[in-house]
Design goal:
The chain has about 190 residues and is α+β, with helices and mostly antiparallel strands. It contains two helices and eight strands, in the order H-H-E-E-E-E-E-E-E-E. Strands 3-2-1-5 form a four-stranded antiparallel beta sheet, covered by helices on one side. Strands 4-6-7-8 form a four-stranded antiparallel beta sheet, covered by helices on one side. The longest helix has about 50 residues. It is elongated and about 80 Å long. The model has no long low-confidence stretch (mean pLDDT about 85).
């Protein structure tokens, strides 16, 4: 007499369904994903450039507002100064118009009109591959006790991705009137008027 375990064995493959992907299916899927990624990459690049320019423009606008408020609060003697080309990771800053390395807002406690260690209130570092160009040459911007900047009628900056520069649709301008109105303009409106 045979017990149930003596019954003839059925082939396992016949009972079980195959699960998973074949190598061919996996290769086709990966190929399609690679083609789609290659098509999407240029669109993402312009989106990222636009975001980076907007962030730097916002940082500049914020720093100008901050310098004004600190100068009014402290009775003047507040400056914005561009960081030198020797700043770590910065290689594009060549003239006093180029603020590509970033800037610092400081109170000039010793009266030398230059930033020294210990005077810093706020520091902004600019990401790589960004151009920040001041319309007038100058390594510093002085803010007096009334919040007036350098006594100039207009201070302007152009911010753009490198190497496209101002031709890029992502480019923006930051314009500051001596009386304190600070605004960000789009590429078509550059330079500040």
């Amino acid at each position: 007499m045979c017990i149930p375990s003596c019954a003839p064995l059925q082939p396992i493959a016949a009972k079980a369904m195959a699960h998973g992907f074949t190598t061919v299916e996996l290769m086709v899927t990966l190929s399609i994903a690679a083609v789609l990624a290659a098509l999407a990459a240029p669109g993402f690049r312009s989106l990222i450039e636009s975001w980076r320019v907007t962030k730097v423009a916002s940082d500049m606008k914020s720093s100008l507002h901050f310098a004004r408020s600190e100068a009014i609060k402290r009775g003047g003697n507040v400056y914005l100064e561009k960081l030198p080309k020797t700043t770590a990771g910065c290689i594009t800053d060549g003239t006093n118009q180029d603020w590509d390395c970033g800037w610092v807002v400081f109170v000039d406690t010793n009266g030398n009109k230059r930033w020294n260690t210990g005077e810093e209130i706020q520091r902004i570092d600019v990401p790589r591959n960004m151009n920040v160009t001041r319309s007038r040459s100058g390594a510093t911007i002085r803010v007096d006790r009334w919040g007036m900047m350098d006594g100039a009628s207009l201070i302007g900056f152009t911010i753009s991705p490198s190497p496209a520069g101002i031709a890029s649709p992502a480019a923006k301008g930051v314009c500051s009137a001596a009386g304190g109105r600070i605004r960000v303009i789009n590429q078509k409106d550059i330079p500040c008027q």
